[in-house]
Structures are given as C-alpha cells and as structure tokens.
Please model this.
Amino acid sequence: MAVYDDIIFQVVREAEADLENLLSANIIYFNSEIRMNIFPWFREIIEKISSSEHKKDEIAIFLTTPGGQAEAAEKLVEVVRKHYKLVYFVVPVAAMSAGTIFCMSGDRIYMDYSSSLGPIDPQVPDKEGKFLIPALGYLDKVNEIIEKSRNNSITPVEFQWLMNQDFAMLRFYEQARSLSIALLEKWLVQYKFKDWSVHRTTEPGSPVTLQQKQERAREIAELLSNNVHWHSHGRMISMQTLREVCKLEIDDFGENANLQRKVRRYNDTLTEYLARTDIRAYLFSRFVSQA
Model:
C-alpha cells in the first residue's frame, strides 16, 4: 500500500507543478468543511509556502467543500490575503454554502460546465455544538408560521412549535445570514470587481462607480442567500447560472483542454485517495508535506 501511495503522490506532485505553470500561481488543495478546526492547519501551510523560495504573488486554491461557517471563511481569507496579492479559486466539482462565500473573496473564480457553487445558507452549530445546520431553513419556517399567525391560520401544533424555539438561537441565525451577505458585499467590491472600470452591456463604455459596484455586489449576495429562489440548501448552481442569473464573471477552465485535463488529474487523484482512506479533511501542497 505504501508503494501505491507513493505512486499516487508522485502523480499529484507532477500535476500540481503543471498547474502552477499554467496558472502562474502557487497551488493548494483544500477538501474539508470550513470550520475553525481547519484554521491552524491552513495558516501553517500558507505561511510555509509563502516563506519558501517558491513563493509567488498569486495563489490558486483548489476548493472542494460541503460548506461550513462564515466566520471561519472570514479567518481563512484574512490569512491568505496577508500573504498573497492575488487569490484564485478553482472549483473542480463543488464548493457549497460557506465555500461559495470563500470563493467570493477571490480575484478570479475558475469553474467548468460541471462545477457548482451553492446558495450561501450559513451553517451554524446546533445547540450541542456537535453538528452544523443550515440557518436559513429555520428562519424561513419561523417566518412562515409568523405570517400564518397574521392571517389567523396558524395551527395549535405550529404555535406550540414556535413557542418551543430558542429565540436567542434564532437571532444567532439572523446574524449569521447578515454576516454572509456583508462578507460577499465587501469582498466582491474589494477583489472581484476591482478591475471593473467600464460597463460592457448597459451603457457600454461608461465608467463604473463605486456605488454601482456595491449595488451589484448586494444584488448577488441577496440572490445567493434567497432560499425561495433556489428552493434547496443543497442546490448545485452551475457556472452558466452564475453567469446568466447572478451576472457573475467566471473563468471557464474547460475552454483550455490542457488546463481542464490537469485540473481533473490533480483533483480526482487526491479525491479518490481520500475516499479510499476515509479522510474527511485534507489540505495539500507539494512544498509542505504529503499529508
């Protein structure tokens, strides 16, 4: 098994080196929930890469995640922006919820036709702090029952359920939603929209103002956090939908067959290794360590 793993990581290192040349950036593979338990590990890898002789001004984060906490995403962004001028996100398969929030802090987002982001329904710890639960589902249900109360159509069971809710936790959920939207608004304007200087569709050639950037960022943030629109916390939002519905500029790595092949070789090899070894959280850079 050790010999087999050596072969796997030789393939991974070669693919990472190829991607570094193609993207002109340092590379890090990130496959994990976005929670604070991953933060020290992420910080250590970023610091080691950025202090090495291989340091570049750009980094590309190959991101696969089911989501996590917006607060943790904010800390990861603080670390990576301390050490890198330009940050790219590559989504080989899917980056959901807090992963989408994390991606919005990038200068560029790379996807192809099969990649997905997700609605930014923040995930928060349950009462016992053991599991992450989507916050907006609870808020939507509470608002639905409150509306029924206004219309005098609430049932006794619904009233009892509402009274049994922890209103401090519901407020916490509201704050998590507000934070998610605020982070998207801030990061999109600061990073993704920084080079957006003239309009290309409406009033082509006219200058883009800071207020217009802020308005566009808020539109995107509110749309991505709209459960009614997406219907499901786990909805897979394609590159095409992000472009056409959210009006978000995405770089298609599928337009370059060689880049697409290298992205999949790098990601799929590591993903299959994690599935075989049942590893749930994993970061990788060939400049730091194998595991």
Remarks:
- The first strand starts at residue 26 and ends at 31.
- DSSP finds eleven helices and eleven strands in the chain.
- The two ends are 15 Å apart (CA to CA).
- Residues 167-192 form the longest helix (26 residues).
